Amino acid sequence: MPGKRLVGQLFLFYCILLSAGLLALGWLASRKLEETYIAGLGEKLETAARILADRSAPLLAAGSTTELEHVVAEVGRSMAVRVTLISADGQVLADTRADAARMGNHADRPDVAAALAGTGDGGVHNALAGGERILLVTLPARHDGNIVGAARVSANNSDIDQELSAKRGSIIGAVLAIGAASAVAGWFVARRIVRPIVELGRGARRLVSGRLTEKLPIADIDELAALAESLNQLASQLEERSHAIGRKGHEQEAVLASMAEGVLAVDSDERVISLNRSAADFIGGKLTEMRGRTLSEVVRNLELRRFASRALASNQPLQDDIVLHGERDKILHIRGTALRDSAGQSVGAVIVFNDVTDMHRLERIRRDFVANVSHELKTPIATIKGFVETLLDGAMENPDDALRFLTIIAGQAERLNSIIEDLLSLSKIERSEEAADLERDPARLRGVLEAAVGDCYSKATERNIEVRLSCDEQIQATINAALLEQAVVNLLDNAIKYSDSGGAVSIVAEQSPNEVTIAVSDRGCGVEQEHLPRLFERFYRVDRARSRKLGGTGLGLAIVKHIVRAHHGQITVASAYGEGSTFTIHLPVLAPAGKQPAGE
């Protein structure tokens, strides 16, 4: 319900005070007017009585009745009062408002009797005549020291009231005019007083609406001016704090947006109140569409929803690992903490996601590497140990058995040596890759590829494999020739091993504006799709029995990958089971600066 306007209340209060003041002033003025009028009327009556007594005394002594009536009429007309002339025996001789013959004798009236006796004070007296109060003055008329009559002058209430009413009307008119003028002036004064307050109110509403840059006007009234100054200072402080909060909000949003970890905040009803882009990507939804919706609407993963419910109800931080299924499964390590108000009541929870898929993969690779290297070293060591023990048990006495056993021992020792050399070579390449200090020079590729073909020529001839090379003489790149030759040799060696006898292996080098590619293709057994992602891991074998039979260490493709990465390139593979494989090395035309990320 809207309240009353201040200007109206001020004006009403002013009008009440003004009316009370004007009423009091009118009453006092009326009383004063009446007192003044009565006093003036008394003086007037005394003057008229004195004039009548002086002028009528000679005529009374001479008995001139006609002249007396003329004097009485003249004095009554000039003084505007009632005049009565009385003889020495109390008989009314003339009166301006009545027939003297009918008025009878007034000798018995106190004022007349006192005047004729010469004992009256000659002052103004109140008397009753016909039930009406009158003012009168009665003076003796003296001639040669003798009282010859009495002069009486009077005024009744009707005359007094008529005269006072006219004067009171003037006073009332003046009071009303003053009141009206004062009311108008009061209205403008009230408006002038209220206007700064109204402006302050409008300014306060602008502050509430967020328009903090618009300053309030400074009023002429000191108190309102101080209030306006305070509000302006408050607006400035609010603006500064708003900017600071805005900056902090942008900084927090920038921090959250740049975090690789996902951050999700929900209220007590499991409704999303905040999340960053990483969390949206993990969950699999759009950032702008997820806020304000419940987890059951935006999260399909049941484990995550259950974890959020447990985090809301728990007094302690929780953590767990969950799997998000998709085109590529992700393993997330999640931590949840309940958000509580000052009373300790749960008002929500914040959940932080960490993608530990790569960590788990690397941990698995580490475990597999330890297991694989142990297994790869254990087999030749066990073989060597067994045959040595056999020789010590007496087989040395048989030259043929001793020679055969020593030949096997030598072969296993060579296998151990190959594994160790490959591990050392891989470690050296990784160090060069991490330090980005691999020596590279511009060189033509054909010479490097021809040298690689030459290294594998004897193996290819043994298995009746034709090696075809296609490389333009002008193709060149910034390379370490020895390492690149080793990578190509490893690829050729694998292609020859896994190709059928009488088949063919091709090497095709091509150059584009941005890169040089070297593709090594065979028509051998090929690799199933499920093995392709792990093909370049250390000691990973698609067919362990066949790989060992063919003499591989399980490190050749891992060495190829790290050699290529040390050249700031990458290697890809395309294969179909039973149709063959193509390994392609991609090298940049211009060698970029900087380090390549380490790892599998």
Provide a brief overview of the structure.
54% of the residues lie in helices and 20% in strands. The chain is α+β, with helices and mostly antiparallel strands.
Q: Can you walk through the features of this model?
A:
The chain is of the alpha+beta class and 600 residues long. The protein contains 17 helices and 17 strands. The chain has helices spanning 6-62, 65-79, 100-103, 110-117, 157-208, 222-258, 277-283, 287-290, 295-298, 302-313, 357-392, 399-435, 445-455, 457-462, 481-497, 544-549, 556-566, and strands spanning 82-87, 92-95, 125-129, 132-143, 146-156, 262-267, 272-275, 318-324, 330-340, 346-355, 441-444, 466-470, 476-479, 504-511, 515-522, 570-576, 580-588. The protein has a five-stranded antiparallel beta sheet. Strand 8 and strand 9 form a beta hairpin. Helix 5 (157-208) runs parallel beside helix 6 (222-258).
For the sheet with most strands, the description reads: 5 strands, antiparallel
| Quaternary organisation | single chain
Task: Give the terminus-to-terminus CA distance.
Answer: 74 Å
Query: How many alpha or pi helices?
Result: 17
Radius of gyration: 65 Å
Structural class: alpha+beta
- Pick out the low-confidence regions: 544-551, 593-600
Shape: rod-shaped
Strand percentage = 15-25%
What is the number of E strands? 17
Strand neighbour order, sheet with most strands: 2-1-5-4-3
- Overall average pLDDT: 78
